[in-house]
Write a structure and sequence with these properties.
Blueprint lengths: L1 H8 L11 E4 L12 H15 L4 E7 L3 H9 L3 E7 L5 H4 L4 E8 L1
Parallel strand pairs: 1-2
Antiparallel strand pairs: 2-4, 3-4
């Protein structure tokens, strides 16, 4: 399945910064949201990134996830890069045709 869908996914690839701490798709079940769990998780990852002498952190998410964007912005992340696929098949395998990469300098 991955090989069959790889052409669709290539439009949504983001450039990775060497030596940066990178997170993808943090998920918190709905019954645990608004309890500060994601903020605690991000703080833990930031501490780990600093221990590894990373100068920046990145997090990747879908652009339709406004709650996550607000949460990450509150934690100090800024919008950094957006990638989009015009392929109409992409929404058959992913929840959105646009990804957002957010960045936080440490």
């Amino acid at each position: 399945a991955l090989r069959r869908n790889s052409n669709y996914l290539k439009d949504l690839q983001v450039n990775r910064a060497k030596g940066a701490y990178q997170l993808e798709y943090v998920y918190c079940r709905s019954e645990y949201r608004k309890r500060g769990i994601v903020q605690l998780l991000l703080a833990s990852h930031e501490e780990m990134a600093k221990k590894h002498l990373c100068k920046e952190m990145f997090i990747l998410l879908c652009t339709h996830n406004h709650r996550a964007i607000d949460s990450y912005t509150h934690f100090g992340f800024l919008k950094y890069q957006t990638v989009h696929s015009d392929n109409i098949e992409i929404k058959r395998i992913l929840p959105d045709d646009t990804k957002l990469l957010m960045r936080k300098c440490l």
